[in-house]
Amino acid sequence: MIVKQGIILEELEEKLKVCFKDKELLKVALTHSSYANGKKNIKFNERLEFLGDSVLQLSISEYLFSKYTNKSEGELTKRRALIVCENSLHEIAKRWGIGRYIKMSKGEELTGGRERVSILADCVEAIIAAVYIDSGFQVAKEFVIDNFKDTIEKAIKNKIILDYKTKLQEVMQKNGDISIEYVLTKHEGPPHRRKFYTQVSVDDKVLGKGIGYSKKESEQNAAQEALKKMEEENE
Amino acid sequence: MIVKQGIILEELEEKLKVCFKDKELLKVALTHSSYANGKKNIKFNERLEFLGDSVLQLSISEYLFSKYTNKSEGELTKRRALIVCENSLHEIAKRWGIGRYIKMSKGEELTGGRERVSILADCVEAIIAAVYIDSGFQVAKEFVIDNFKDTIEKAIKNKIILDYKTKLQEVMQKNGDISIEYVLTKHEGPPHRRKFYTQVSVDDKVLGKGIGYSKKESEQNAAQEALKKMEEENE
Which domain, by its residues, includes A50? Predict the structure, then answer.
């Protein structure tokens, strides 16, 4: 069992491109509070998340401050808010495929915990703190910038979209008034973990499909896919 | 003039217990945006303030994280919010006597800029950023902790009071129902820079006096003085 866990941690370290001197730190960063419930002496990642949030903030602040010397404080603050948010932490968590490495209670797992945005985002912050404690601020900062570089670039170019449905509406209406339709095509799974499937179309032409754990999420994902396809067609 | 400014900067550096390698950084940290208005190529402290806020956050977060290993994430967040706020930055600015070192427009100065809480607090954050850029995170962290240690101690002991009037009410009512009276005794100065003088009393006994740039501020200061006197009497 110990050997197996060792191998799993190594696998994740490769994805993170980080080798921890103190593996215990990574283990704690990967432990959700639900796993510690009712058990004694199990450390979980909430305190690390508290610290990681500040490490992330300073890393991004300094990067923006040094790189964009002509941008005002207001501009910098706006960009930082686009970069340091649950959404982008979630993106990074998905890229690392971190869900499968998190220790959580059976109950949490059964209700979709491995895909829950907040759990994944918090875990990324905890890992940032683990890198900071293990190797200091310089290394942590490089780790953050390396992982956030796509997000930073998008934020600078104003390409981060927070509401895909609104964005799709804006893009489509450039060609005159149109009516965009979102249709829930199916749902599956038990009530506490139901998956929703939505497709978005204009004039009966399907533009995109999306899946999510709420109708709203599936619609946003459908709109996002539609925008992505349109962008690819324009390239 | 250059010599004079050099001497003034040296004086402040002594108070801060910091010697800047790059004096220009300290100068920018001490320049309010109003001073740069309508002038070309004058750097002011808003961008530094953006960076300093994050340096401060991480310094305090790490200190709390390392020192209070038994406190939960929620507890740590609460304490940090008490420590990292305009109020405590203002306290530090007053301790340094920083108001007189700030470059600002005549207009700002005439309307009480040198005592304005937001200007003073922002300036402290800008100085923290200047230390960070000049000497790195380790030095900046030590600088922060050294200057915030009283505030941290109070926050940990739950001794930070945000509303002195309410606190005074609570303390006084331990001895049964009483009526606390705030009386505006005088005001002076032009309308845009009026100073208010208030005294607080119970049964015609004056407990404390306070001055402020609004009635509210003078009442809070009167209540604060009353609480301080009572504490000293109990010691």
Answer: 2-156
Name A60's Cβ contacts closer than 8 Å, sequence gap at least 6: A80, A83, A84, A144, A148, A152
Do B207 and B145 fall within a single domain? no
Confidence of residue A188 (pLDDT cuts 50, 70, 90): confident
* Digit-coded pLDDT (tens) for B44-63: 999 999 999 999 999 999 99
* Cα A132 to Cα A141: distance, rounded to the nearest angstrom: 8
**Residue A23 Cα, gap to closest chain B Cα (Å):** 18
Q: Looking at CA atoms only, how far is residue A48 from chain B in angstroms?
A: 8
Partner B contacted by A47 (CB < 8 A) = yes
B178-203 residue pLDDT tens: 889 999 999 988 777 788 999 999 98
Q: Could you tell me if B163 and B61 are in contact, meaning their C-beta atoms sit under 8 angstroms apart? A: no
Please identify which of the residues B13, B53, B62, B86 carries the catalytic annotation. B53
- Helices of type H across A157-214: 164-172
Q: Does A199 have pLDDT greater than 80?
A: yes
Q: How far apart are the first and last CA of chain A?
A: 49
- If DSSP codes are grouped into helix, strand and coil, which group holds residue B32? coil
Same domain, A147 and A168: no
Are B68 and B134 found together in one domain? yes
Say yes or no: B86 contacts chain A, CB-CB below 8 A: no
Taking the Cβ of residue A102 and every Cβ of chain B, the question of whether any pair is shorter than 8 Å is answered with: no
Check whether residue A172 and residue A208 sit in a common domain: yes
Chain A residue numbers with beta carbons less than 8 Å from the beta carbon of B55 are 58
Tokens at A153, concatenated:
């670039």
**Beta strand ranges found along chain A (DSSP E):** 180-188, 195-202, 205-212
Give how far B108 is from chain A: nearest CA, Å: 20
Residue pair B149/B167 in contact (Cβ under 8 Å)? The answer is no
Based on the domain organization, do B149 and B170 belong to the same domain?
no
Q: What's the pLDDT band for A1 if we cut at 50, 70, 90?
A: very low
Kind plus residue range of the DSSP H or E element containing B209? strand B205-212
Asked if A227 and A166 count as a contact pair (C-beta separation under 8 A), the reply is no
Rounded to whole angstroms, the Cα distance separating B117 from B93 reads 9
A98 and A15, same domain (yes or no): yes
Provide the edge-to-edge strand list for the sheet that holds B205-212: B180-188, B195-202, B205-212
How far is the C-alpha of B224 from the C-alpha of B65, rounded, in Å?
31
Enumerate the known binding-site residues of B for Mg(2+).
49, 122, 125
pLDDT over 60 (residue A196): yes
Q: Which amino acid belongs to residue A166?
A: T
**Annotated binding-site residue numbers of A for Mg(2+):** 49, 122, 125
Q: How many CB atoms lie within 10 A of CB A116?
A: 18
